[in-house]
Amino acid sequence: MHRPLLFLDVDGPLNPYAAQPERRPDGYTTLRVPWNRGTSEEPRLSSRLRPLRVWLNPDHGRALLRLGYELCWATTWMDDANRWIGPVLGLPELPFVDFGDALFRERPDGVHWKTVPLVDHADGRPFAWVDDEQSPLDQEYVSAHHRGPGLLHHVDPRIGLREDDFRTLAHFARSLKDPAS
Asked: What is the pTM of this model?
């Protein structure tokens, strides 16, 4: 049996972007990323803008790898997460969900624009989704349209992933192996 998927958002869970801007959280390092993220594409914003400030905790990589999931980026960074985020966390290159036309597209039913592509990507496999933007509407959609177990785990973007979050994710993964957990 395959390990469950862990869909990882960057901004919020891994990068507590909503923390006080003048105070980096303990254990985090600061990364400065150009707006065009070093790709050959045209910058999405003016190249005169200051680089994007990203706070990352290098310990999160080891903690994520120990959880027993198949890790997958579920972020607007898409493959750029492998270039900028993964190396700081000590993560190998990970698959990513290509959101394509769904990227930032608002839905009239209020379901987050990531939800349908993540359910499609999981294709019935158990998954946990770590993000700071899910709502009860997303959980309802997953419950109605996903054939396997799905955990939508909200992380406060002011504090990022914490020990309690890792415990919750580990418990969910264990519960898939042992229904009595």
From this structure: 0.88
